[in-house]
Write a structure and sequence with these properties.
29% of the residues lie in helices and 22% in strands. The protein is α+β, with helices and mostly antiparallel strands. The strands form 4 sheets. The protein has a 6-stranded mixed β-sheet, sandwiched between helices. A 5-stranded mixed β-sheet has the order 7-6-5-4-8, sandwiched between helices. The N and C termini lie far apart (74 Å).
């Protein structure tokens, strides 16, 4: 089979088994994929796959604002609030970031850990990855190097795969033929307060944010597996490792909070030893704040300010069937990166635990105590319903 060369990168001719978008992006001039002169996810993906982005220092290729043009004004403020949330957790938790999940053809989650080195993992990462492996999940380490991405499987042979090799071998059984880099809902400059807080990021922090967005938007999207990022893997003292998902929200007109569908999948797929906790930062502006810059209500990048409230809930497997069967819809134009409507699980705000002590930290032990007592109560009910043993 003949090989072609794009900026020194050999690749095979297009195959129906591989993401056709991959070759389109390799051959297109990134400038042609911009929107009104602004960067898009597709123009960034094209530049990345062609080796035009310095992954050791992406800010040297373009400014953070240039990369975030592709995210849209609805998504960009979330990066500020996610950092605030992680900062809150770090005050009393061990925390690991940059974990991602995608799905194989059999529907089984495949886990990815983005790290600065393929050999550098902390104890929390090692323990969590080992637990995932023990439950039959594939776990991959990924790191950016110079102008490309390198991947190798946790606990397996030391073989390292580049993107082309990963697609050729498809070791995870991903639905690559459906993979494509999708454009976001809009491209625009951030609102004033959001832009201000983004400017406070150090160069290292800005680079980490850029690489995390390239990883999910320009690589994982091409695998075709409905990827999403995990906000944090955490541990409090000697407690269990848990998964923390976060959203800044305000209730609907009925007083309910909408929970995205991927959390249903995640709750059902996690090993039993690792509960899923969902944290909500209740926005004081409420529904009347639509259209405004949510970051304008913050005191600083690490302090949410008056009026905000923290809530938490343990999302047990099957929570959408057993406890919260109601659903609701949200529009992409209201939140998120893309247009259209998406279905959410409707959970009354009263079902969340108000974390009253979160003025200085987030105390997840409250959620742990609640979910373990609830789990025991549910187990006792099930035992009481069993038929008595003969004799």
């Amino acid at each position: 089979m003949q090989h072609s060369i794009v900026r020194g990168h050999p690749y095979r001719g297009a195959s129906s088994a591989l993401p056709r978008d991959y070759y389109n992006l390799l051959n297109e001039d990134p400038k042609n994929l911009r929107h009104n002169g602004r960067a898009t996810t597709r123009s960034i993906a094209s530049a990345f796959l062609q080796g035009k982005i310095n992954c050791d220092d992406p800010c040297a290729t373009a400014s953070l604002n240039n990369y975030l043009e592709a995210e849209g004004t609805k998504r960009t403020p979330a990066f500020i609030f996610e950092r605030l949330f992680i900062g809150r957790l770090r005050r009393n938790h061990e925390v690991s970031e940059n974990w991602y999940v995608s799905t194989a053809r059999n529907g089984k989650p495949v886990w990815f850990k983005l790290t600065s080195s393929t050999d550098r993992l902390g104890n929390l990462d090692l323990e969590f990855a080992a637990s995932l492996k023990a439950h039959g999940f594939q776990v991959w380490k990924a790191c950016f190097e110079k102008h490309s991405l390198q991947l190798n499987m946790f606990g397996e042979s030391p073989e390292t795969l580049g993107i082309q090799e990963f697609f050729d071998k498809n070791p995870c059984g991903m639905p690559l033929e459906t993979g494509r880099v999708r454009p976001m809902e809009c491209t625009s400059v951030p609102h004033e307060a959001t832009a201000y807080f983004l400017e406070q990021l150090s160069r290292s922090e800005a680079n980490d944010l850029i690489l995390s967005r390239i990883f999910i938007n320009c690589f994982l999207e091409l695998t075709g597996g409905h990827p999403y990022d995990i906000d944090a893997i955490c541990r409090l003292d000697d407690g269990p490792i848990f998964i923390a998902e976060f959203k800044r929200k305000y209730p609907s007109a009925s007083g309910a909070l909408g929970i995205d569908g991927h959390l249903v999948t995640l709750a059902n797929a996690l090993p039993p030893a690792h509960p899923l906790y969902h944290f909500i930062l209740d926005d004081p502006t409420g529904r009347h704040g639509k259209g405004r810059d949510p970051a304008s209500a913050l005191v600083s990048a690490s302090e949410e300010g008056p009026g905000f409230s923290w809530f938490g809930l343990h999302l047990a497997p099957g929570f959408h069937q057993h406890r919260f069967p109601d659903s609701m819809e949200t529009r992409g134009s209201d939140s998120g990166q893309r247009g259209g409507r998406r279905k959410q699980v409707s959970i009354p705000r009263s079902s969340f635990i108000h974390l009253t002590g979160a003025g200085t930290r987030i105390d997840s032990s409250v959620l742990y105590s609640y979910c373990t007592s609830t789990g025991k109560a549910q187990k006792d009910v099930l035992l009481s319903k069993r038929e008595p043993a003969p004799g």
